[in-house]
Amino acid sequence: MVNRPLVLKILSAVIIFGAWEIAGRVPVSYAFPTFFESMAALFRLAMEGTLFTAYVDTLKPLIVGVAISTFIGIGLGLWIGLSSFFDWLVSPIFIVMQAAPLAALIPLLVMAYGIGLTSKVFVVLIMAMPVIVLNTSSAVRHTPESIKEMCRSFLGSRLDMIVKIIIPAASPLIFSGLRLGISAGFIGAILAELKITPTGVGDIITFSRSIADYPSMYAAIFSIIVLAVLFLNLLERIEKFLFKGNDLGYVSD
Amino acid sequence: MSQIKEVVAPQSPAPDDIAVSARNITKNYGDVEALKDLTLEFPRGQLTSLLGPSGCGKTTLLKIIAGLLQPTSGNIEVNGKPVTGPGPNRAFVFQDFALLPWASVMRNVAFGLELRGVAKSEREDVAAKYIGDVGLAGFEKSYPHELSGGMRQRVGLARALAVDAKVLLMDEPFSAVDEQTRRKFQEDLLSLVENENKTFIFVTHSIEEAVYVSDQIAILLPRPSRVSEIIRPSGFRNKGADSIRRDSEYLDIVDNIWASLRNYVE
Prior knowledge:
Shape of chain A: globular
Strand order of the largest sheet of chain B: 6-7-8-3-9-10
Number of strands of chain A: 0
Structural class of chain A: mainly alpha
Low-confidence stretches of chain A: 249-253
CATH topology of the domain at 64-197 in chain A: MetI-like fold
Helix content of chain A: over 70%
Shape of chain B: globular
Number of helices of chain A: 10
Strand content of chain A: under 5%
Low-confidence stretches of chain B: 1-11
Radius of gyration of chain B: 18 Å
CATH superfamily of the largest domain in chain B: P-loop containing nucleotide triphosphate hydrolases
CATH class of the domain at 64-197 in chain A: Mainly Alpha
Mean pLDDT of chain A: 88
Oligomer: heterodimer
Strand content of chain B: 15-25%
Distance between the termini of chain B: 23 Å
Order of helices and strands of chain A: HHHHHHHHHH
């Protein structure tokens, strides 16, 4: 038996990279390198160690921002979902945050927090947090009424209700919020490096572009996409591990 | 009609044989009166059905007895003690099963005990016994989505039995399962009532089901909701599960209930 998903994954990778290679060879633009040139540049950046030192810089605001968004975001989301007063008080902040054009806010952040790590963490937060908070709170509000009644009728405490019913029931939506939030966080981290001060991967992108080393520029972009995809896959594994059986829906559906 | 009145009149059980009593229960939702001044007693060790057209407040009454809803006025007593909220003397079986989709059959059945702080090995021993009793041995590790509708409700029933409450509250428990499974459930319920020393309060919208399984049927009528009639079928209860549906008293009661309910069905 052939492993169909694996075959399809390889096939779609071959098609996309093939199209990239062809587009680079035509070429569609002199600023567009071929796939193999970009991979060679990636290999060179990795060998020189430039790529790794760059990621140390980039991952710092990303990890701090994503960690804060995850823990504080899920916490706030739970609270908003459980208390209508807190919902009234706090929700609008995140709705505005989600709608705000981030690039326009960056000068304000720089003015307030300088050009260091703090500003970059804030950019990641503004990107990642709203969707995590809003998804969590709406998931909490939509916990099926009958399993909540079940918990109460079998003498569950308020804590049991939150830990054993509401959080597991909300987990699929919380995780989908995390997936969206973390991918937005990746965008935020790179945006911060392009708009505030060029460091890390953003520096490789800006610098290679300025000296017309397009393969390196595309190599850096490619690497961040791969990293984001790998991270999201990891998140999916964690979800499957933590809440087995939950992705299969409610039995009363 | 006369036949029913005869059945109603004689037995009025002694007060200490009343497991649950509802006195002057009124429940308003805003301006809507769901229940008005409803008084009803539930004899110990018997099965009482709440039967009525939709919107007559039967599920509301059941949830008030469970302590899940607070009445606007009036009070519920279980074994002489007033009800203020959910308690260990009552267990609930839900219409939509209310199983945890992320938990195995074992954890679902043991969940009531888990919430009471019973140690894991002990509660799993108890749960395993009831899983066997409801006929689900071998499915302990399955998840609810892997079971049929009937099997899911058996899990819900095992969970309610596992906490060993003296009063079992069942909210249209068989309405979401297919007809053949339902008949099997009804037969099983009769032997459960006979063997377990528990008081059953059973909400249903099926006249046949109510007459088949009940020791006492309370007919609720809407607008405003009240108990219009209490029927205690007695003649066919000991004739065996197979012959009840052919018994003439059974058929008469079904017909009479329909005659009094038909005006309220839109």
